[in-house]
Automatic annotation (TrEMBL):
<keyword id="KW-0378">Hydrolase</keyword>
<dbReference type="InterPro" id="IPR011118">
    <property type="entry name" value="Tannase/feruloyl_esterase"/>
</dbReference>
<comment type="similarity">
    <text>Belongs to the tannase family.</text>
</comment>
<dbReference type="GO" id="GO:0030600">
    <property type="term" value="F:feruloyl esterase activity"/>
</dbReference>
<dbReference type="GO" id="GO:0046872">
    <property type="term" value="F:metal ion binding"/>
</dbReference>
<keyword id="KW-0479">Metal-binding</keyword>
<keyword id="KW-0106">Calcium</keyword>
<dbReference type="InterPro" id="IPR029058">
    <property type="entry name" value="AB_hydrolase_fold"/>
</dbReference>
<dbReference type="Pfam" id="PF07519">
    <property type="entry name" value="Tannase"/>
</dbReference>
<keyword id="KW-0719">Serine esterase</keyword>
<keyword id="KW-1015">Disulfide bond</keyword>
<protein>
    <recommendedName>
        <fullName>Carboxylic ester hydrolase</fullName>
        <ecNumber>3.1.1.-</ecNumber>
    </recommendedName>
</protein>
<keyword id="KW-0732">Signal</keyword>
Length: 500
């Protein structure tokens, strides 16, 4: 195929409600990169060697909104598999950020055309540079672009560029993302149900307004209860929780797999002695450490004990809520001060409990429509034949697994046949998107493609990880609410487990 990579040869895409400002195109040659699975969520390791692709960058605006959004698309010169893979962002970034080089490179290495968007936020890692147009005035247009509007634009632009470059539409189009990228994937399924045939939306931050507000609860609890636990104390409590709850699934492997049976209380370990490595001496666990661990695990509550939102699971790394002698804490607020108080000088750590409860509700009232992707009505996505897969680490220290359980259960209430189009896999011991002590499901995207193109729904996802003794452990992840149950035999073999 005689492919031409130049602005004069590529037709500018047409996006309803948008004006194209600029289109640049240039060949990238001899592109070589190692893409590890830990930075290639939903996929495995990819070795990209001497790749050649057309890098097309489109800049556009929504007239009247004073925005400037960039979509970057990579179109392989050789070996294109006829499919588009759109990639998402992380944290406060919609995409086109530091990890996009891995996401896009991995997609190219597997034969896909790839696309990403910055949602008009440029290279800002945090919203301090764009959240406020002036004190008291949030840039709602920028937040709208991050939340949802740029997502459909990205799909339209990516498909349009493929059509112009290759002379035909992609056979299938997919979305792949985790965290912010997972939230984006669910938002696409809810608001733009025909944008993609298949969506891999892992560790999704779909309840954005609630989980971001909930993150501050253990930090504020330190102030309210006037305690200052050490990070080593919280690490000790995590290890105690694992030791207590690990055997309850029938296999001792250093991972909590059956959280419903986990009944460990951090208060039972108060005054127990242990070696604190940062102090290089033995100390007794403080009651303050138990208070903060309990706050992290229970999630925020009102003063009279009413539920506000979920906490993280025991076994998650909660050491960031503790201090390390000689190290200054770097915890900074960009949510309550910029978006709720709308004042960059607002001191979140001085909020009273009543002020926090009020701010929690105000955040949801004002920003749910912008950022939350928790609408369970997936009827249009289901009608369009879309397929959706999510995995979520049960030791995720950032976004509680129960967030995704809550959403999946809400979808199930509406659609008893939910597993015909949406499957959710909980991953014991896995951290946020990757990391932790459990296995990362690296075949998620392949399973999604098989489901979309061949109708083969994934009954399990395989994972591997190093056990507490360093030996390889093979396991299966099961579609929620099923769990992998040990049925006997070699506990290191996936063949010894069944979904029940």
């Amino acid at each position: 195929m005689n492919l031409t990579c130049s602005p004069s040869a590529i037709q500018s895409p047409s996006v309803f409600g948008a004006e194209i400002l600029n289109l640049s195109a240039a060949w990238v040659t001899n592109y070589t990169r190692t893409i590890p699975a830990t930075f290639n969520y939903n996929h495995g390791d990819v070795e990209l060697r001497n790749a050649e692709f057309c890098n097309i960058t489109v800049t556009y605006t929504h007239p009247g909104y004073d925005d400037r959004i960039t979509v970057e698309t990579w179109l392989p010169r050789h070996g294109w598999n006829g499919r588009l893979q759109a990639t998402g962002g992380g944290g406060w970034q919609a995409g086109r950020f530091v990890l996009s080089q891995f996401f896009m490179g991995g997609a190219i290495g597997e034969g896909y055309a790839a696309t990403t968007t910055d949602a008009g936020l440029g290279d800002a890692v945090f919203p301090a540079t764009w959240a406020l147009k002036s004190p008291g005035n949030v840039d709602y247009a920028a937040l709208h672009n991050l939340g949802s509007r740029s997502l459909n634009d990205q799909a339209v632009i990516g498909k349009g560029l493929i059509r112009s470059f290759y002379g035909r539409d992609p056979d299938y189009s997919y979305w792949s993302g985790c965290s912010q990228g997972g939230r984006q994937g669910l938002m696409l399924a809810q608001r733009y149900p025909t944008a993609y045939d298949g969506i891999a939306a892992s560790a999704p931050a779909q309840s954005w307004t609630k989980f971001v507000s909930a993150v501050y609860y253990p930090l504020l609890m330190r102030e309210w209860r006037e305690v200052s636990p050490l990070a080593c104390e919280l690490n000790f409590l995590t290890a105690e929780a694992i030791a207590h709850c690990d055997p309850k699934d029938g296999v001792v492997d250093g991972i909590i797999s059956n959280l419903t049976a986990c009944d460990y209380s951090p208060y039972t370990s108060v005054n127990q002695t242990f070696h604190c490595s940062t102090l290089n001496r033995t100390i007794a666990l403080s009651e303050g450490a138990a208070i903060i661990a309990d706050a992290a695990w229970s999630g925020p509550r009102t003063r009279d004990g009413k539920f506000l939102w979920y906490g993280v699971n025991p076994g998650s790394d909660i050491s960031s809520y503790g201090s390390v002698p000689g190290q200054k804490s770097t915890q900074a607020d960009v949510w309550f001060n910029l978006f709720v108080a709308k004042n960059a000088s607002f001191e979140t750590n001085k909020m009273t409990r009543a002020e926090y409860e009020r701010a929690f509700h105000l955040a949801s009232q004002e920003y749910t429509d912008f950022m939350d992707a928790a609408d369970p009505d997936l009827s249009e996505f289901r009608k369009a034949g879309g397929k959706l897969i999510t995995y979520h680490g049960m030791a995720d220290p950032s976004i509680p697994t129960k967030d995704t359980e809550f959403y999946y259960n809400a979808v199930t209430d509406l659609f008893p046949d939910v597993q015909e189009f949406y499957r959710f896999f909980e991953a014991p011991g896995l951290g946020h998107c990757s990391g932790g002590v459990g296995g990362q499901p690296i075949t998620t995207f392949d399973a999604l493609r098989q489901w979309v193109e061949n109708g083969t729904a994934p009954e399990t996802l395989p994972v591997e990880y190093a056990g507490s003794d360093g030996a390889k452990q093979s396991r299966i992840l099961c579609p929620y609410p099923a769990q992998a149950k040990y049925i006997g035999g070699d506990a290191s073999s996936a063949e010894s487990f069944r979904c029940v």
